[in-house]
Prior knowledge:
Blueprint: H1 6-9, E1 29-32, E2 38-40, E3 47-50, E4 72-74, E5 94-96, H2 99-105, E6 108-109, H3 115-129, H4 137-148, E7 158-161, E8 170-173, E9 176-181, E10 184-189, E11 192-193, E12 197-198, E13 204-207, H5 211-218
Parallel strand pairs: 4-6
Antiparallel strand pairs: 1-2, 3-4, 3-5, 7-13, 8-9, 9-10, 10-11, 10-12
Amino acid sequence: MPTPRxxxxxxxxxxxxxxxxxxxxxxxQNRVLPxxxxxxxPARGTLxxxxxxxxxxxxxxxxxxxxxxxxxxxxxxxxRIRRDVMPPGRWTALFFLDEATALSAGHRPxxxxxxxxxxxxxxxxxxxxxxxxRPRAHEMDLVLHRQRVSxxxxxxxxxxxxxxxxxxxxxxxxxxxALVLDGRLLPWTIxxxxxxxxxxxRALVEVFTPPAIVQVLRAGYRAGLHPSAGSPRQ
Length: 234
């Protein structure tokens, strides 16, 4: 896939925030938790993404938490272009600690700025479900959207023995969440992971990562992790 030239990526004037610094809400409500909830916190994370335009003209969020089933995760920087994170009517930039967090919330890799990851994710999906070809983005989106939230817009979860979960899965842990990595749990915080905890492999846990993505991880897709998680064993 050819790399877009910088001039192709340059935002139009409508993308740029024209207000004064005093009119900016700081921090903006654009950090995503493993549950998919969106909160305000100054920490930026290692990935961004979006679900369409979900902010109001005053750069706050209303009731809506998505405009389409296409929930994606993207690189933080692309072509050294600085963009407004809440351009009117375009999109609402969301930020994630890492890819494991984005996957838990139900965001797949973007097919444009994360082309290689998108293809790897699709290949793992194909292997996980025994398909004859890589699924198209919208086909994955429709499956994932049914697994993200209920008809009442409540986060859907499942239950499984922790020892059956692949690296990169996110589970409920106390009042928060934890990453599964090499059979241990790394408690999640908005700025990184805490020290790993041992847990019995047969312990039944609440799984926040959608079931289809758990299968994709099990089929070999490797989620990008925040540096605080360390590196998984080979």
